[in-house]
Amino acid sequence: MPNGRIFSRPARKVTNFLNSLIDWIYPSQCTCCGKEPDLCPFLCNECYHKLLIFDDTPDSIVYHKDQPADRVKALFYFDDILQKLIHDIKYRDASYVATFLGRKLGEHLQLSEFSKCDALLPVPLYSVRKRERTYNQSACIAKGISKEWGIPVNERLVKRCRNTNTQTKLNKEERRKNIQDAFRISKKAILPKSVCIIDDVFTTGATTMEMARTLKKAGVKEISILCLATPLRESKKKE
Ligand SMILES: [Zn+2]
């Protein structure tokens, strides 16, 4: 039994890597509609332009009355197209999709307050989880943004010191308790004055808010939270 675990992880890494290499070399179809991709190797212009820009603060921010961030935003509405793209990022090792979407996020908010910070801080993964997935999707999004803004990505300042794997099955209060004190600031690091936390999807906001609380407590003066997407609540979808 233990042998299975030892050998399965590298084997999966190789398979994922090969999948991602084949996808890149033979970009035959758009991830979302299957047509010839004419925007980039995995996406067509039509699908990209169907993505809805979410020009507001995520709805679930209202659950965080003590929220420590100066501004919070998600760029896209989490619809079917974005869901497919994020699925590829998470489960097909398509880190280039994350970087591409990060660049789009950066382009869109080039002149906003979000782009006036000293460092981009991707939400860190717990180290074991990062080894399993081979990369941190939030860091890839941050690298895309960094190419547009010229602001450095800092992956060393904040560490995740606990595994919080089970978030998806928890409600918002349970998520908040589950993530409490999960982050630590590196003692050796020089603290930037202003930071922008980067994540993929803003759902309840428990993770990014806890990271922001930790940074605030440590003395960071200005904190922004920027995510790729957020779901809309049912009531808003019908409007
Ligand atoms: Zn398409």
Outline the structure in words.
- By secondary structure, the chain is an alpha/beta fold.
- It has one domain: Rossmann fold (3-Layer(aba) Sandwich), CATH 3.40.50.
- Helices cover 42% and strands 14% of the residues.
- It is built from nine helices and six strands.
- It has helices at 2-25, 45-50, 80-91, 95-108, 127-133, 137-149, 172-179, 206-218, 234-237; strands spanning 71-77, 119-122, 158-160, 183-185, 194-201, 222-230.
- The strands form two sheets. Strands 1-6-5-2 form a four-stranded parallel β-sheet, with helices on both faces. A two-stranded antiparallel ribbon has the order 3-4.
- Strand 5, helix 8 and strand 6 form a beta-alpha-beta unit.
- The radius of gyration is 18 Å and the shape is globular.
- Zinc ion (ZN) binds next to helix 2.
List keywords for this structure.
binds zinc ion; Rossmann fold; 14% strand; disordered N terminus; 9 helices; alpha/beta; 239 residues; 6 strands
Low-confidence stretches: 1-7
What is the second-level CATH architecture? 3-Layer(aba) Sandwich
Question: What is the CATH level 1 assignment?
Answer: Alpha Beta
Bound molecules: zinc ion
Computed CA radius of gyration, to the nearest angstrom:
18 Å
Strands side by side in the biggest sheet? 1-6-5-2
Distance between the termini: 53 Å
Write the layout of secondary structure elements.
Elements: H1 2-25, H2 45-50, E1 71-77, H3 80-91, H4 95-108, E2 119-122, H5 127-133, H6 137-149, E3 158-160, H7 172-179, E4 183-185, E5 194-201, H8 206-218, E6 222-230, H9 234-237
Parallel strand pairs: 1-6, 2-5, 5-6
Antiparallel strand pairs: 3-4
Helix pairs in contact: 3-4, 4-6
The structure holds zinc ion.
